[in-house]
Amino acid sequence: MPTGYLVTLGDGSLDSGDVIGGGAISFTADGAYPTGLGSGQWTWTGEAGGFPYTNELEPGDYWLADDGNVYFVPDYGIVDFITTSTVTSAPVYTSSGDGTIMGTDGDDVIDNGYTDDDGEVVDGGDGTGTLGHEDVISAGAGDDSITAGLENDTVYGGGEADTIDGGSGDDVLYGDTDPNELAMSPVSITTSNYTDTSSGFTVTAQNVVGGVLTSADVSNISTYAGSFGASGAVSDTDSGVDAQIAYDKSSGLSEKLIVDFDHPIDELTFTTLSLQTAAFGEVGHYALYNDGALVYEADFTDSTGTGNDTILVSGHGDFDQIVFTALIQTDLTDGSDYGISDITFVPSEPAPVPGNDSIDGGAGDDLIYGEEGDDTLDGGSGADSIEGGDDADTFNLSDGFGNDTIVGGEGGTDKDTLDLSGVTEPITITYTGEESGTVSDGSDTISFSEIENIIEAGTTDYDGTTDITFGGNANVATVEKEVVPDGLTNEYKLEGDAVDSAGGNDGTVNGATTVAGNDGNALSFDEIDDYVEVPDVTMNDEFTVSFQFKIDDTTGSLFQYIYSHGDINSTNSLNIFINEASHGTDPNVLRTVIRDNDDTLDNFALDFDISSIVSDGQWHTYTLTVESGVGSKVYLDGVEQNSDSRGGDSFNPSGNLFLGAREDLNADRFFGGDLDSVKIFDKPLTSSEVTTLGSSGTVPAIEAGTIVADVTNVIDADGDIGHTFVLTDDAGGKFTIDANSGEISLVGDHDASTAYSDTVTVEVTDPSALTYSETIGISIGSDTGDDTVTGPHHQNIMYGLGGHDQLTGGSGDDAIYGGTDNDTLDGSTGGDTLVGGSGSDSLTGGTGADDYVLADGSGTDTVSDFDLTDSGDGTTVDQLNVTGLTDTEGNPVNAWDVVVTDTNGDGTGDAILTFPNGESVTLQGVLPSEVDSAPELNAMGIPCFTSGTQIATPWGKIAVEELREGDLVTTLEYGPLPVRWIASSDLGEGTAPLPENVMPVRLKPGSLGNRRPLIVSPQHCILMKDEQSGEPVYVRAKHLAEETRLASFARGRKQVTYVHVLLDKHATLISNEIPSESFYPGPMALEMLSLYSRMNLYAAFPELISGPCEKAYGARAARVLTRKELRKTVAHEMLTRLEIELLAA
């Protein structure tokens, strides 16, 4: 076995200057010469026999080994080691390889053990590069596994799902592309293979039999003299051959030869046999189709004079079928006929099927292109450039990820994920725009864009578009609602308007004013010129009219019309009015005059006395029913007052309906009093139904519009801020959703006397048009019943309302509200929210991180399984939410407000936490010693202290934690401004002092005219006055603590809560009587915010995503002094307290 040195053929040829390198290698070769290529020389530098040599010129032989590589065997033997060596002279040799390692269309494993048809292997030394290991690999179709190995390789994965490992070097890796796929060879269809359907074509024919074309089939083909055609027997005086494509003159039809191609082509040639154009005027015809649609058709003739001509079909675009027919001869004496001896075409490969590729760049600065498919891409170490291409790609990162540039791509079914779960070192994620930002571990930084989702180390996906959770409303309560019978066609609640909530026939209010009604608001009429006009209301022979009213007084001798539809002096009219107190014959009478087509005017038929209710200040319900065969009845407060046998004939008043006036607006016929809840039914109500109208028939109900759920935790890691929400499924038709806020509310009143449940699917769409959905169950118990409900879905929202309820959640994150009385709530699995409500409730969270919500009046609750395990951030897995609890002075509770005892009274029982107003929670299985310190209570969710800063507002001072978005605050520069966004940052774990960059600064009482201290963050600015310039200037709190005696650091503090108040523009607030700045969203301030708070801030100010802050939000309200400037002003005593009153004026 010869031993020599590998020669690197830089261009595939053995030439002077080619590198000879590495250690000596033994190789195999068949025979001596000609396997040995011939003699030549090499020049080497190194060491032999213990002596150094430089540029030694020595002879030797060049060999072609079995592995396809060329080796040099020196005549003087193997040297000790080589520093450099090159070819000096050599025989002529060119590698038979093409420089590319080719795969097949199968599932190949291409590595240094794979040899292609040209004898080329990975890292075989016949590539380019210093060592000849820079290979080009074309894997072709199939699910290939490719290991590129050494140096800078280019790999084309080709179609389907490939696994590519670039190895070392700066590689270029493609998931789907393969420009080196072998070109398809031409295929000829002849008499020997026309029945073959495995070569990219199918040939059939149709014959003319009895004047009708047969169906297409290969059995309809026959051959003649090296040609093939239709096998039918068409009469032809010029030719007796049946195996041809012939035109049947008697039927006017032609036989057909049909060729279907497996994949579209754009060119072919065909050769005819015996198309006798010169002798008989015969003409052929072909038509091209693609996917059933005609692309092109043409006639053809023989140009050779022999009848055997080759015709090119090209330039008409893609086609997947050609149909040959014959035409009548040009002399019209007979039909043409001919055969086909050859059809030649180049099959087209189907478009590569993009697969879900897995590509690992390995070491080096790689270029990686995932292209189509759901690819998994890993750049490895080095500064890589990675493009995912179309569809949902995953970019895996691990420790030492390098300075990569990652582009997710926006095509296909897009949802690209940056997976950081393999990174164990601390990282910082910074968002610079929608779907873009950076990831840094302190040494390496990745820049990413077009990324919809991030999976962070140690967490699950925190991109809210896929994590849709839901919250409920602890304040859902029942009210007493009026029962409305069936048949309601028009309803005017008169809530300050004349909207028809039942029939949509809205009216117009003219002068009447809004007052408190019996149910909501009502309208008050002044007896002068107030009225409501309603477009014509359609009525029939049977109906009911009802309204609620109060009478101010009935002074006078005329009439006050409450309801007027049609002229009282004409048929088809209904008028309801009051005879005033001084009326000559019937004072203080309420009259109903109804005239159908058969009635005459009768003012006395349906009147009744109302003296007792005039000016009593009470609401009363009037009702009129009209029934065929029974007649008319009038009721007051559900009690029948009068009746008449007339009524029930054909009836439909014309003209508009007037409330509070007669239909002609007579000045002496206006109403003085209040009117509410006018209802018209298309049927006569029964006496029992009449009693339910008004205040006498009410049931417990949850009002329409009540919010019972909302979509929560939809926060995009990709920077998408806004989302739209829609209900795609509402099985009971009970709910509606606000497209912007995600709040789910009741469409109509819910009768709380019975339990109700529904299934709702919420679809969430973000600005990148990514859409996700989640199905939840909403269950509402009865107001008084003892409900037992088990949530049927992954996520459930459940309300027990009244009664001793037993509510059990599902496998997801449930929100369960017990309501009043003593309830039993069980969250089951998932991170649940449990709200016992009032009463002595038993709460079980089950597995998962659960929240137990306590509020003022929540009673004495018991938690069976409170999980005190550290969740990893210094807080317990389960949490107590006490934001709704206050102390005896109305302040939010803190850890020092809690009294810890136990059920045994000796420290051995279950811990009992009692709050200032008597609410308590017993934690079964938890010893009091485990929860009796402020840090322990704080870890459970009870704050160690509250912010408490008093902010000046137009209505006085308000604690900053009580401010809400939209509240007005007083600013020195602009007067009242609304709060645009508010959030808080809870810093510190309570185990060690806070670091100096977030350590609070305390401004002492009296230091700046303040009576109480002010605690702010070190970067927060205080407004003061520069006496030299006379201008107000901002001074950072930390500089005041470092350079003056006005402030000091709160050293030793282990926890702090900073509340951030953002306005429409930067301004100065009055905080504990000190002028201090509103939140300014600069880089340092943003770093203090949690991801959740930052995303909400971006929702309020999307401009901040692309920054800079000065351009997106605006400049600060005043200049900020540097530390150097502050020292100068302090030294010259030129910095003074700002006179707030003077500046505000």
How would you summarize this macromolecular structure in one to three sentences?
This protein is mostly beta strands.
Task: Describe it.
The chain has 1145 residues and is mostly beta strands. The protein folds into seven domains: 3-89, no CATH class; 99-182 and 351-462; 187-345, Jelly Rolls; 484-696, Sandwich (Jelly Rolls); 706-848, no CATH class; 859-946, no CATH class; 950-1140, Beta Complex (Endonuclease - Pi-scei, Chain A, domain 1), CATH 2.170.16. Helix content is 5%, strand content 40%. A ten-stranded mixed sheet has the order 7-9-11-13-28-30-32-36-35-34, with no helix packed on it. Residues 828-839 have a biased composition (Gly residues). Residues 818-827 have a biased composition (Low complexity). It is found in: Secreted.
Topology:
Elements: E1 3-8, E2 19-26, E3 36-48, E4 51-64, E5 70-74, E6 81-89, E7 100-102, E8 109-110, E9 136-138, E10 145-147, E11 154-156, E12 163-165, E13 172-174, E14 187-189, E15 201-206, E16 208-209, E17 212-213, E18 221-224, E19 227-230, E20 245-248, E21 253-254, E22 256-273, H1 277-280, E23 284-290, E24 293-300, E25 310-326, E26 337-345, E27 358-360, E28 367-369, E29 376-378, E30 385-387, E31 394-398, E32 405-407, E33 417-422, E34 428-433, E35 436-440, E36 445-449, E37 453-455, E38 469-471, E39 479-482, E40 488-492, E41 508-510, E42 513-516, E43 521-526, E44 531-534, E45 543-551, E46 559-565, E47 573-579, E48 589-595, E49 608-609, E50 620-627, E51 631-636, E52 639-644, E53 657-659, E54 672-681, H2 687-692, E55 698-702, E56 707-712, E57 724-730, E58 735-737, E59 743-746, E60 750-751, E61 756-765, E62 771-780, E63 788-790, E64 795-799, E65 806-808, E66 815-817, E67 824-826, E68 833-835, E69 842-844, E70 851-855, E71 860-863, E72 879-884, E73 899-902, E74 911-914, E75 920-923, H3 934-939, E76 950-953, E77 956-959, ...
Subcellular location: Secreted
Biased composition (Gly residues): 828-839
Organism: Roseovarius aestuarii
